[in-house]
Amino acid sequence: MPLPLCFRRMQLSTDLSSRMARGVFVMMLALAWSGAGRLAGPQTANASPPSERDQKVSNLLERLGPLMQNLKAADREVPRDTFDLGAVVQATGNQPDKIFEWVRDQTAWAPYHGALRGARGVLLDRVGNSLDRSILLAELLRAAGHKARLAHGVLADKEAGDLLARLTAADAKAATRPAAIADPIQGAVVPDGQNPGEAAALQWEQAAEQVTQRVAEQAPAIASAVGPPAAPELPALQAAARSDLADHWWAQYMQQDKWVDLDPLLPDGLPGRANAVMKESVELKDGPGKLPVDRSLCHQVVVRVVAEQWKDGKLRESTLLESAMAPAEVLGQRININHLPLDWPANMPPGAPVESIARLKGAVLGVREWVPMLSVGTDQITQSSVTDTGEVNPKPQLDPTARMGSTAGGAASAAIGAFDTAPPGPAAKPSGQLTAEWVDYVIRCPGRPDRTIRREVFDLLGPAARAGGAVAAPSFSDDARVNAGLSMLGQIDILPLACQPSPQFVEHLLIGDFVANGGALAGVLRPPAKNSPPATAPAKGAAYRPLNGALFAMAVVRQQCSRHRNDTYIDRPNLLTYHLATQVGKGDQTMARFAFDIVANDVAVRPRAWGDAYAIRLEQGVLDTSAENLFVPASGRIESAARLYGAPERWVTVRNEADPQWAQVQLPQDARARIRAELAAGNVVIAPRKPIEAGDRQAVAWWAIDPRTGSTLGKGSMGWGAAMGEYSVTLQRIAIFVEENKTWICMGKICWGAASMVATILGMGFVSTAAGDVSQILDAVCGEP
Questions:
Q1: Least confident piece of the model among 124-128, 226-230, 503-507, 530-534
Q2: pTM of the model
Q3: Order of strands across the sheet with 300-311?
Q4: What does the alpha-carbon distance between residue 53 and residue 309 come to, in Å, rounded to a whole number?
């Protein structure tokens, strides 16, 4: 069975440790096709009788413990030299010269300014500027027991130019990235001759072939429609690289009361030799993963939650939450945004029958105050709340949330109480209204202006009405307000990328998440004692931790599937997000909505490929947009620029609002307002002349291309979420979602399954017994079709 073109470069290994280390991805492979599609429908008469089901659950409980032990053993076999400093020190010993040679030879220089990757980031993708590579070297020296610090000097332009010439020549000779990243494996071995996952692997391969084919067809068409770059880029790239080199860093270690220079910049560098005169030294900060330089030299991502209020004929924005993070310092940590409803109904019987959508609507409409919460690893950040009238409370009282837990899972589990809550009575006419909420992502790079990218949580008003100037007192339907509340009850997972994560690192993280959820899976499988009285509140057990499978899978896919993966790297934070929520549609139909959103996908090009930088970035953007479709449900509503883009006569290229082509774009006013914002930002837009038929509905999407750099990204009708899917779900299914921490176990089946793409990339053509066990676990928890 041939692999797609984008996978055929990968070679597979037959050694046992490699197979075990990749077991978690095999599980994702099984989940993607055995469980994800089952989210849509209610249970049928074909379900197993209770006695048989109870026996199955009992058997699964018996196997769950050994499964978790096997996964822990598999994690110990994952090669760690791409993410663990200790593994490198063990390989090199504690000799400073050997450590220096390892960094010099196993990592490569790439131009950018400031601290982006940090020590572990350079390990992950084996590239970095002089500062990040020196941070890695200094941290390795310290891990080996030596006293180390950073040294900093400034080079004259001519000196930097001479170094650039030498580095460019060396880069041209390097055909590939360092071998440690290639992760060679060969041929998939089927345990005991069984291959129950072959059909799943084949489906993924077919999907990946579609991505490859789309990129091959669409990238040249888009490049032709946009034309050549607005100006030659080579001089600017060379000037920027000289500037980056002029700000030069290296490491020093203490030997017999004397600091010894270790400068790994050049391939022929030697201990004791530095490429600049030291002007200052910087001590390493305590704490693993902390960047040792001033914050002004660090790349950062600021997450800001902004609410909009209409009051007295005016619109006003207020910041509810703002937090900055350095992507290098949160590598591997789970980051998400959700909301706590402060006055959700207190009566929450876990088995309450779902009789009326009106009760769900009533509960959502009854919430008067919401608190946005940012979770970064184990830290939970809350600052202000906002009321349904748009008023901001800088010191919200969080005590009422104690009955529903301190996490979004707990808040969502409280939703079961909605089904025993009557809709609230008429309220006094408010003096103001909450009209919208957004998340602003601010990307801060040293030496560059901040870039702010806005993403909608909900928008009751719409950009067209807002752009029109004065807004009269708005009036919103209850259904619109319910969906706004359900959007806030959803979740946004965030993955800031400071580097390209290695496959081994992703394996390690997903195995860890899998093992961490063992207690939660056991808790929902374990039946209550016989003859026990009905519970009045959800049972409290181990918390379920949803996987970031879709985000990490995308991070691997977008690099491994690129024809130019050896010529590109990340030189500023990239940002991937995944949205998950429920909505109420026409006829009170309840929907589960999944949306993959690439917020920032800028890539840099290695010096050896500078002549093709524009075309490479454009192709990367087309690949990113097409690959998004791999991580949303395969049926239901799909909104994707890559899927919709086709016959050229149905699309037009618009360069500014004065362009005659703009008059041909007959799209909804909100979509036109969003495209205007793209044009105002200097982007070229390729848009359909009118909405495109997509099944039983009309869809809108477009491409935004930076004519100076070639950076490209597909957008959907909301201005984000180029890949969006919806499944119809029943009220009974929602009851399963919200009961006893099952919310993200059931809805998150899609997220687990998305990581299966990594399994295919890493060449796993088999499904282990453990994968079948976990698939059955999720079926037992969420209900079989």
A1: 530-534
A2: 0.84
A3: 314-325, 300-311, 432-444, 451-459
A4: 51
pLDDT at site 578: 87
Question: 386 pairs with which residues across the strands?
Answer: 370, 392
Distance between CA atoms of residues 643 and 210, nearest Å: 10
d(CA 627, CA 638) in angstroms, rounded, equals 13
Distinct helix (H) and strand (E) counts, the chain: 25, 27
Q: Given 446, 474, 497, which residue is the final one in a domain?
A: 497
d(CA 373, CA 86): 35
Tokens of 128: 């970095």
User: Is residue 253 within 8 Å of 263, Cβ to Cβ?
Assistant: no
Tell me the C-alpha distance between 444 and 441, whole Å.
10
Residues in the chain: 785
Show the tokens assigned to 576: 């991937």
**DSSP element (H, E) containing 672:** helix 669-680
Clarify whether residues 268 and 321 are in a common domain.
no
Locate the DSSP E strands across 585-662. 590-600, 604-605, 651-654
More confident residue, 424 or 624: 624
Domain count, the chain: 2
Q: What is the pLDDT of residue 209?
A: 82
Average pLDDT over residues 50-69: 73
Strands (E), 212-295: 247-255, 258-262, 280-283
Structural domain contains residue 365: yes
Q: Is the predicted pLDDT of residue 783 greater than 60, yes or no?
A: no
Written as six digits, the tokens of 740 are 């006893």
Return the structure tokens found at 183: 């992760």
Domain around 390: 301-497
C-beta separation of 245 from 237 below 8 A: no
Q: Which of 497, 517, 552 is the last residue of a domain?
A: 497
Cβ contact 393:369 at 8 Å: yes
SS3 state of residue 110: coil
- 3-class SS of residue 569: strand
* Most confident residue range from 295-309, 369-383, 733-747, 770-784: 295-309
Cα 594 → chain centroid: 13
Amino acid at 596: F
My answer on whether 279 and 306 are in the same domain is: no
Beta partners for 651? 688
